[in-house]
Design brief:
57% of the residues lie in helices and 0% in strands. With 760 residues, it is mainly α. The radius of gyration is 36 Å and the shape is elongated. The N and C termini lie far apart (87 Å). Pfam families: DUF5917, KELAA, RAI16-like. It comes from Bos mutus grunniens. Belongs to the FHIP family. This is FHF complex subunit HOOK interacting protein 2A.
């Protein structure tokens, strides 16, 4: 109570007294602080019961006022006094000793405000960055301390300053000798304090450091006995080492990172998020030395991956895949969830959001990081989390476990945005192989083999989930995905067989048109596809459709109509039902195909694909052709379309249509050209569908009232008819409807790709 009265009285005197020059006023407040340590005998009273906080605040006010009164960059006498007399070193020592109790908090606030409010660069001065570095080491030593908030504010302002001037980070990369000393426990701390005190006890007229050229400020003639008395008092302080947070610090070269890493484990969510933000700033610094130190001499990689692993393992053994897919978009900085307030809560939702939130943080951190650091971080996630934790779950035999782990993989495939992390994820799922596949070596990358096999799993749920994962994977901007799954097997075009032009082989269709076929060039739906709506890079869009040896492209319009009508006429009229229902015609697919193709072109633009197929003369047509494991499973599934559940068929055809949209000439030829001359023993998408249609024609004859039943099933699927009595052969009828719609979709894709290529 008496000290508070003294403080009030002092402020009143200062208000009435004539104003002193800023430097004298500054020195007065600093001496008032030093006098406390010289004169006080009670070092147990909290700092808030002393005048120290108000003196520190006044010193800050004076420094800001002095800077505002001078030209930018000009150092005033008060700032020179602070630098020359190593005031920050002294405050660090007092804060470390936390004498009087609460002093550490006051020192952190002073440092934070000083760095935040002073515009001129202070960190290059050795008498600033050296005590700042020492104070950084004190942060995060003990979790949940009363000073946590001040610690994170201080660390974040240092990070912000480094972001403004990245070269300054080199001042914070300590050599290993110093870091070894700092790890020595209580004795090392005492030694460090003594060294600081030795530097404080020197005469104030000592020579200046080269980093801080000082002008004639008039401070050299200040008496030194008070500083000596202060250092003597400091030697009597009881400095004990606080127990450190249990985090391994390998070399302690980058203490700013280590302190932030400790604070990411704070029980206070706001502190943890702030620490994550600080790390985000540090990893983005362009300095190579800092990036190397960050990944090799700190626990950052371990923190990211270990927390990912622990959060993944905390998930329930079985989570509904629909819940995993539909849980709201997660932002790492907004990981706040209340079970009571959530109407759509489900068991494990809190754990799922925590995992997805941390994965989002890892993704964003790698996305923002300097390239060397980003690669190292992504590889750590690959090795320590993808392979170490996720792979065993994906390779298990329990159907429930497979379904849950595949749903989680699907979710993070959708969520990842960092190109470098995506690359590691792709290598994890597919492997790095780029040479053509052989049937004997399809299990060379076990996880890839297992996931592709799961596309044809006995469990329809597992098949659908795995197919959806591959569908989203194909939409990612990474060239290796399509090349590994499909393109490497089509590179030599050895699915084709060269034979000379033979008149008997000409198509019976006159002028490429079938009676009643719509002239698509006149379709008003395509009035919006103008040169303005197409991509400017035409070189590789000209892949549709390529000329085949026995069917030279003399008339482009005829060629595209022949291809379109080949797909439209695949399903016989007696098996078609769409023309009985309004709004289900072929034209409904054209707009979607145009939009999707444009999106795929934008993704593939930087992959420098060729504009036309590889010349047959340069292809190794003698090599045995294998479509690859992925297309093999898809074609096998497509061949069973009449005997599979409706949902499985939708997913299989969805993946195949995605593949068909890619603007690569070999994909176009293999999947969308009905006139390609297939080599002996080879199959294409068109040939697979032809076989299905042949089987369908036989089976139709055995079903009574086939057409009315087919129409009823279509109307029920569209919601135009209520569910009623059970219809026999329902699986086959639904399969026929999917087949008809898929052929229309392929026709639309073929036309859109041709139109995009031929538009000038």
């Amino acid at each position: 109570m008496f000290s508070k009265f003294t403080s009030i009285l002092q402020h009143a005197v200062e208000a009435l007294a004539p104003s002193l020059p800023l430097q004298e006023d500054f020195v007065y407040h600093w001496k008032a602080i030093t006098h406390y340590y010289i004169e006080t005998s009670d070092d147990k009273a909290p700092v808030t019961d002393t005048n120290i906080p108000s003196h520190l605040e006044q010193m800050l006010v004076i420094l800001v006022q002095e800077e505002n009164e001078r030209e930018f960059g000009e150092t005033g006498p008060c700032m020179e006094y602070l630098l020359h007399h190593k005031i920050l070193e002294t405050l660090y020592t007092l804060g470390k000793a936390d004498c009087p109790p609460g002093m550490k908090q006051q020192v952190l606030v002073f440092y934070t405000k000083l760095l935040g409010k002073i515009r001129q660069p202070l960190l290059p001065h050795i008498n600033v960055h050296r005590p700042v570095q020492k104070l950084i080491r004190l942060c995060g030593e003990v979790l949940a301390t009363p000073t946590e908030n001040e610690e994170i504010q201080f660390l974040c302002i240092v990070c912000a300053k480094l972001k403004q001037d990245p070269y300054l980070v080199n001042f914070f990369l300590e050599n290993k000798f110093k870091s070894l000393v700092s790890q020595g426990g209580p004795n090392a701390i005492s030694e460090d304090v003594l060294k600081s005190q030795d530097s404080l006890s020197t005469d104030t007229g000592q020579s200046c450091q080269p980093e801080e050229p000082l002008g004639a400020s008039g401070t050299e003639d200040q008496p030194s006995h008070q500083m000596g008395d202060l250092s003597t008092s400091l030697e009597n302080l009881s400095v004990t080492a606080l127990p450190e947070a249990t985090v391994v610090r390998p070399n302690q070269d980058y203490n700013l990172v280590n302190s932030l890493l400790n604070l990411t484990r704070s029980p206070d969510g706001r502190i943890a998020v702030k620490a994550c933000e600080g790390l985000m700033l540090l990893v983005s610094l362009p300095e190579p030395a800092a990036a190397k130190c960050l990944t090799q001499s700190t626990c950052l990689c371990e923190l990211l991956t270990d927390r990912l692993a622990s959060l993944y393992k905390a998930l329930p053994q079985s989570v509904d895949p629909l819940d995993i897919e539909t849980v709201e978009a997660v932002n790492w900085g907004l990981d706040s969830y209340s079970h009571k307030e959530d109407a759509s809560a489900f068991p494990g939702k809190r754990a799922l959001i925590s995992f997805l939130s941390w994965f989002d943080y890892c993704d964003q951190l790698i996305k923002e990081a300097q390239k060397t650091a980003a690669v190292a971080l992504a590889k750590a996630v690959h090795e320590r989390f993808f392979i170490g934790v996720m792979e065993p779950q994906l390779m298990q035999t329990s159907e429930m476990g497979i379904l849950t782990s595949t749903a989680l993989l699907h979710r993070i495939v959708r969520q990842v945005t960092s190109d470098i992390l995506l690359q590691e994820m792709v290598f994890f799922i597919l492997g790095e192989q780029r040479e053509p596949e052989t049937l004997a070596e399809i299990s060379r990358h076990p996880l890839r083999h297992r996931l592709i096999e799961h596309c044809d799993h006995i469990s329809d749920e597992i098949s659908i989930m795995t197919l959806r994962m591959f569908e989203h994977l194909l939409q990612k901007p990474n060239e290796h995905i399509l090349y590994n799954l499909v393109l490497r097997n089509l590179e030599e075009r050895n699915y084709t067989e060269y034979k000379p032009v033979c008149p008997e082989d000409k198509d019976v269709v006159e002028n490429g048109l079938i009676a009643g076929a719509v002239d698509l060039e006149e379709d008003p739906l395509f009035t919006d596809i103008s040169p303005d709506n197409t991509l400017s890079n035409q070189e590789w869009l000209s892949s549709s459709p390529p000329a085949t040896p026995d069917h030279p492209k003399t008339d482009g319009k005829t060629e595209v109509h022949k291809i379109v009508n080949s797909f439209l006429c695949l399903v016989p009229d007696e098996a078609k039902s769409s023309y009985h229902v309004e709004g289900t015609g072929y034209d409904t697919y054209l707009r979607d195909a145009h939009r999707q193709f444009r999106d795929y072109c934008a993704i593939c633009l930087r992959w420098e694909w060729p504009g036309s197929p590889k010349a047959l003369e340069r292809c190794n047509l003698e090599a045995a052709f294998f479509e690859g494991h992925f297309l093999k499973v898809l074609f096998d599934r497509m061949g069973r379309i009449l005997d599979q559940p409706y949902d499985v068929n939708l997913q299989v055809t969805s993946v195949l249509s995605r593949l068909s949209l890619f603007p690569h000439p070999h994909i176009h030829e293999y999947l969308l050209d009905p006139y390609v001359n297939l080599a002996s023993g080879c199959r294409s998408l068109f040939s697979v569908i032809v076989r299905v249609v042949g089987d369908l024609m036989v089976r139709i004859q055995r079903i009574q009232d086939f057409t009315p039943k087919l129409l009823l099933v279509r109307k029920r699927l569209l919601g135009l008819e209520p569910e009623g009595h059970v219809i026999d052969h329902i699986t086959l009828l639904e399969g026929v409807i999917v087949l008809e719609e898929f052929c229309k979709e392929l026709a639309a894709i073929a036309f859109v790709k041709y139109h995009a290529a031929s538009t000038p």
